[in-house]
Structures are given as C-alpha cells and as structure tokens.
Write a structure and sequence with these properties.
The chain is of the alpha/beta class. It is built from nine helices and eleven strands.
Length: 260
C-alpha cells in the first residue's frame, strides 16, 4: 500500500511547522508495516526543512507543486462546487495520514486536523479556497479525501494573530483520532475554544462527518484536565493603526472582522 503523510509544513521558520522527528516516527511506523510512505505538502518548504533528515530513510519526500494533477469533482460540496485540480497522489493513495500543527487563525478561529487539508491544493490554487469561503471549502476538501488517521502536533503551537503574525508556545501534547472532526472538537476544547465557535466544525457535523461537542467524543490517554490550556487567539476587536484612520466595519461578519 502507498501511504500519504500530509504534514503542516509550508513554512521554513523554526517552530512554525510540524516536528520533523514526529514525521520520521510516523514514516518509520508505516515502513515497519511494509507500506510505502510518501510525505507531501504544497510549496518546497518541506523539502528544505527535511533536507538530510532521517525521515528520508523511511519515506519519499515530495511537494504537491511538482506532482501530476487530476481534475476532480467533490460530491456534496457546498463551496467548491466546480471541479478542481488535485494532485493524483491525494486521490490514489491507499491510506491517508494527516499531521497538522495546532494554530490559531485570524479567519477561522483555529486550524488543526480539518484545516490542514487546504494544503492539498498546490501552489497558489489555495486562493480558490479563500475566494469561495474558507470554512465551507475546508469541509468540502475533507469530503474529497477523508483522513484515515490524524495525529495533531501540539508540542509547539502557534498562537496570536496568525497568519499575519503569530508567536510560538511550547505546550507538549500529541492527539490522535481516526475521525478528523472528533479530533478538532477535542483539541479546540483542550485549548479553551468551544467547538461551536468554529464554523467549519458546525458545518462538518451538519453533514454527518463527526461529533458536534466534546461530550460525544471518547477521550483516552492523559486526563483532559491535566493538558488543558488557554491559547491566545487572533484579535477580533478592530483598532485603527493610527489617528485619522476610521474603519467602517460594523456590518462585517465575524470572520471579516478578525481579518481586519
């Protein structure tokens, strides 16, 4: 079998990507089971970050930007209703492992298991997602290619006004699930964010893709209260950058206010 491992690794700045050691451990587990592992992400940042890393002993490392594409339609899509070009590897792999890094986000409140799939679209085609609507498109991409396993890297998280800015915080946990929605619900609550505040989680639940709240998730491992913390969110209160500038955004939706 060919196993696709999709990390959050489109930036080279130290800490602003999944731990390479975690990726190597996952790739080794795949190889030990006799499968062929491929680690892939959009842009060439992962190639730079993983250059000369031991992960190459267990997996092939490629960029989605360099792979053949296939036009695919997403049945049931509400945002990406027009067929889009997707790397053939994404559609043809036998098993799909997502490895996101927990982050806050100025548009969608927070980014983890489901949002990581926006990185399936190569190059600048991710603009399609932002034009069509990030929340709905995130759910559509998870319909296109559901993840068999998600392993969230919470060893170091990105918080604050990301992606415009953002700061690193060492937290020190890993979370895994065979259901991306369940993982996102649990980790959002772990970080002090209520699942109902995240529009794409509500949307995913309404489409039958996973639970809506923490009480519906079976929690195993370290007791939840031993890991809980409050992540610093992107600001949602609009302040003018200097006197003389007036921002007229009273009717703006919450996502737009966060962007502003």
């Amino acid at each position: 079998q060919r196993v696709l491992i999709k990390p959050n690794m489109f930036q080279t700045e130290p800490g602003f990507h999944v731990s390479p050691a975690l990726l190597a451990a996952i790739a080794k587990a795949v190889a030990d089971r006799g499968a062929r592992a491929v680690v892939a992400e959009r842009t060439h940042a992962l190639i730079e970050v993983l250059r000369d890393h031991e992960v190459h002993r267990y997996a092939q490392v490629v960029s989605f930007d360099d792979l053949p594409l296939r036009v695919a339609e997403i049945p049931g899509a509400t945002s990406l209703r027009v067929p889009i070009a997707v790397p053939e590897l994404v559609l043809d792999c036998d098993y799909f492992i997502g490895v996101p890094q927990l982050r806050t986000h100025a548009s969608v409140v927070y980014s983890n298991a489901m949002k990581n799939l926006v990185g399936l679209l190569p190059g600048f085609t991710t603009r399609i997602v932002h034009m069509a609507g990030v929340d709905e498109s995130t759910v559509d991409l998870n319909l296109l290619r559901p993840q068999h396993l998600v392993i969230s890297d919470g060893s170091t998280v990105v918080e604050g006004n990301y992606p415009m800015k953002g700061s690193l915080r060492e937290v020190g946990f890993l979370a895994a699930s065979t259901n991306a929605v369940a993982l996102d619900v649990a980790v959002s609550e772990l970080a002090g964010i209520k699942a109902y505040e995240v529009a794409y989680l509500h949307d995913a639940h309404s489409r039958g893709m996973g639970p809506a709240e923490l009480s519906e998730v079976e929690l195993l491992g370290t007791p939840f209260d031993e890991l809980s913390f409050t992540i610093e969110r992107a600001p949602s209160v609009i302040t003018a950058p200097r006197p003389g500038i007036h921002v007229h955004a009273d009717p703006a939706c919450p996502a737009c206010r966060r962007w502003i």
